[in-house]
Design brief:
Elements lengths: L2 E2 L3 E5 L5 H9 L13 H13 L3 E8 L5 E8 L6 E6 L8 H17 L3 E7 L3 H9 L3 E7 L4 E8 L1 H7 L1
Antiparallel strand pairs: 1-2, 2-3, 3-4, 4-5, 6-8, 7-8
Protein name: N-acetyltransferase
Protein backbone atom coordinates (compact mmCIF):
# COMPACT_ATOMS: atom_id res chain seq x y z
CA UNK A 1 0.00 0.00 0.00
CA UNK A 2 1.25 3.49 -0.86
CA UNK A 3 -0.34 6.52 0.81
CA UNK A 4 0.22 10.12 -0.28
CA UNK A 5 -0.51 13.11 1.93
CA UNK A 6 0.01 16.77 1.18
CA UNK A 7 3.65 16.67 2.33
CA UNK A 8 4.57 13.00 2.56
CA UNK A 9 4.61 9.68 0.80
CA UNK A 10 4.18 6.48 2.81
CA UNK A 11 5.52 3.35 1.17
CA UNK A 12 6.49 -0.22 2.04
CA UNK A 13 10.05 -0.76 3.21
CA UNK A 14 12.72 -2.25 1.01
CA UNK A 15 16.45 -2.89 1.48
CA UNK A 16 17.39 0.48 -0.05
CA UNK A 17 16.02 2.29 3.04
CA UNK A 18 18.17 0.44 5.57
CA UNK A 19 20.84 3.10 6.14
CA UNK A 20 18.24 5.85 6.68
CA UNK A 21 16.29 3.60 9.05
CA UNK A 22 19.45 2.86 11.03
CA UNK A 23 20.32 6.55 11.38
CA UNK A 24 16.81 7.39 12.55
CA UNK A 25 16.82 4.65 15.17
CA UNK A 26 20.26 5.02 16.67
CA UNK A 27 19.94 8.80 17.04
CA UNK A 28 19.55 9.46 20.76
CA UNK A 29 17.58 12.69 20.26
CA UNK A 30 15.04 11.07 17.91
CA UNK A 31 14.30 8.42 20.54
CA UNK A 32 14.81 10.47 23.71
CA UNK A 33 11.32 9.94 25.14
CA UNK A 34 10.96 6.42 23.85
CA UNK A 35 12.64 3.26 25.07
CA UNK A 36 16.12 4.58 24.24
CA UNK A 37 18.20 4.54 21.11
CA UNK A 38 19.33 1.38 19.38
CA UNK A 39 22.86 0.28 18.62
CA UNK A 40 23.65 -0.17 14.95
CA UNK A 41 23.38 -3.95 15.28
CA UNK A 42 20.06 -3.85 17.16
CA UNK A 43 18.66 -1.36 14.61
CA UNK A 44 19.74 -3.74 11.81
CA UNK A 45 17.88 -6.60 13.50
CA UNK A 46 14.80 -4.40 13.85
CA UNK A 47 14.98 -3.44 10.18
CA UNK A 48 15.11 -7.11 9.18
CA UNK A 49 12.08 -7.80 11.38
CA UNK A 50 10.20 -4.97 9.68
CA UNK A 51 10.98 -6.50 6.31
CA UNK A 52 10.11 -10.09 7.20
CA UNK A 53 7.98 -10.38 10.36
CA UNK A 54 4.28 -10.80 9.48
CA UNK A 55 3.24 -9.47 12.90
CA UNK A 56 4.55 -6.00 11.95
CA UNK A 57 2.96 -3.73 9.35
CA UNK A 58 5.24 -0.77 8.68
CA UNK A 59 5.55 1.99 6.11
CA UNK A 60 8.47 4.32 5.49
CA UNK A 61 7.63 8.02 5.43
CA UNK A 62 9.29 10.13 2.74
CA UNK A 63 9.21 13.86 2.11
CA UNK A 64 6.89 14.35 -0.89
CA UNK A 65 9.15 16.85 -2.64
CA UNK A 66 12.70 15.72 -1.87
CA UNK A 67 11.92 12.01 -1.30
CA UNK A 68 14.13 12.16 1.82
CA UNK A 69 13.37 9.51 4.42
CA UNK A 70 11.83 11.26 7.43
CA UNK A 71 10.43 8.49 9.60
CA UNK A 72 8.20 5.50 9.88
CA UNK A 73 4.79 4.41 11.10
CA UNK A 74 3.89 0.89 12.08
CA UNK A 75 1.44 -1.41 13.76
CA UNK A 76 3.06 -4.31 15.58
CA UNK A 77 1.79 -7.24 17.65
CA UNK A 78 -0.72 -7.94 14.90
CA UNK A 79 -1.19 -11.48 16.15
CA UNK A 80 -1.92 -10.38 19.74
CA UNK A 81 -2.82 -6.77 20.62
CA UNK A 82 -2.20 -4.47 17.62
CA UNK A 83 -0.14 -1.49 18.74
CA UNK A 84 0.60 1.73 16.86
CA UNK A 85 4.09 3.17 16.78
CA UNK A 86 5.67 6.10 14.98
CA UNK A 87 9.02 7.83 14.83
CA UNK A 88 10.09 10.90 12.88
CA UNK A 89 13.47 12.52 12.42
CA UNK A 90 14.01 15.46 14.77
CA UNK A 91 14.42 17.81 11.78
CA UNK A 92 10.69 17.32 11.07
CA UNK A 93 9.32 17.78 14.59
CA UNK A 94 6.84 20.57 15.30
CA UNK A 95 5.50 20.83 11.76
CA UNK A 96 2.31 18.77 12.10
CA UNK A 97 3.74 15.98 9.96
CA UNK A 98 3.03 13.24 12.52
CA UNK A 99 -0.64 14.22 12.67
CA UNK A 100 -0.85 14.46 8.88
CA UNK A 101 0.80 11.07 8.37
CA UNK A 102 -1.09 9.22 11.09
CA UNK A 103 -4.44 10.69 10.03
CA UNK A 104 -3.89 9.11 6.62
CA UNK A 105 -2.12 5.92 7.76
CA UNK A 106 -4.37 4.74 10.57
CA UNK A 107 -7.73 4.39 8.78
CA UNK A 108 -6.15 2.81 5.71
CA UNK A 109 -3.99 0.43 7.75
CA UNK A 110 -6.94 -0.64 9.90
CA UNK A 111 -9.02 -1.30 6.80
CA UNK A 112 -6.17 -3.11 5.01
CA UNK A 113 -5.38 -5.27 8.06
CA UNK A 114 -9.07 -5.89 8.94
CA UNK A 115 -8.62 -4.39 12.39
CA UNK A 116 -11.12 -2.29 14.29
CA UNK A 117 -8.99 -1.34 17.28
CA UNK A 118 -5.36 -0.45 17.98
CA UNK A 119 -3.60 0.65 21.13
CA UNK A 120 -0.66 2.98 21.75
CA UNK A 121 1.60 3.59 24.73
CA UNK A 122 3.48 6.85 25.20
CA UNK A 123 5.85 8.28 27.80
CA UNK A 124 3.82 10.63 30.00
CA UNK A 125 6.39 13.38 29.41
CA UNK A 126 6.16 13.15 25.61
CA UNK A 127 3.55 15.88 25.26
CA UNK A 128 3.87 16.17 21.47
CA UNK A 129 3.09 12.47 20.94
CA UNK A 130 0.22 12.64 23.42
CA UNK A 131 -1.28 15.56 21.48
CA UNK A 132 -0.89 13.70 18.18
CA UNK A 133 -2.66 10.61 19.52
CA UNK A 134 -5.50 12.64 20.98
CA UNK A 135 -5.82 14.74 17.82
CA UNK A 136 -6.28 11.66 15.62
CA UNK A 137 -8.92 10.16 17.90
CA UNK A 138 -7.16 8.00 20.48
CA UNK A 139 -8.72 7.95 23.94
CA UNK A 140 -6.65 7.59 27.09
CA UNK A 141 -7.32 4.35 28.94
CA UNK A 142 -4.85 4.38 31.82
CA UNK A 143 -1.58 5.62 33.29
CA UNK A 144 1.12 3.15 34.22
CA UNK A 145 4.03 4.20 36.39
CA UNK A 146 7.13 2.28 37.34
CA UNK A 147 10.47 3.24 38.83
CA UNK A 148 11.90 3.72 35.33
CA UNK A 149 9.11 5.66 33.62
CA UNK A 150 5.48 6.67 33.46
CA UNK A 151 3.35 5.81 30.43
CA UNK A 152 -0.11 6.62 29.22
CA UNK A 153 -2.08 3.97 27.39
CA UNK A 154 -4.46 4.89 24.59
CA UNK A 155 -6.94 3.06 22.41
CA UNK A 156 -8.38 3.90 19.00
CA UNK A 157 -11.56 2.22 17.80
CA UNK A 158 -12.53 2.53 14.17
CA UNK A 159 -16.06 3.57 13.28
CA UNK A 160 -16.00 0.80 10.65
CA UNK A 161 -15.29 -1.71 13.42
CA UNK A 162 -18.17 -0.43 15.52
CA UNK A 163 -20.55 -0.80 12.58
CA UNK A 164 -19.29 -4.33 11.88
CA UNK A 165 -19.91 -5.35 15.49
CA UNK A 166 -23.55 -4.24 15.48
Amino acid sequence: MIIATRRTLLMPYNESLQSEFLMLNYCTKNRMLMDGSYTVSSAKRLFQRILHDPSIYSLAVLDNQSRDYIGHVFIYNLDERPTLGFLFDKAYWGRGIASEVLSAFLPQALHHLHLYQVIASVDSHHIASIRVLEKIGFEQQSDLSSQKSAHRHYVFTSCEGELALE
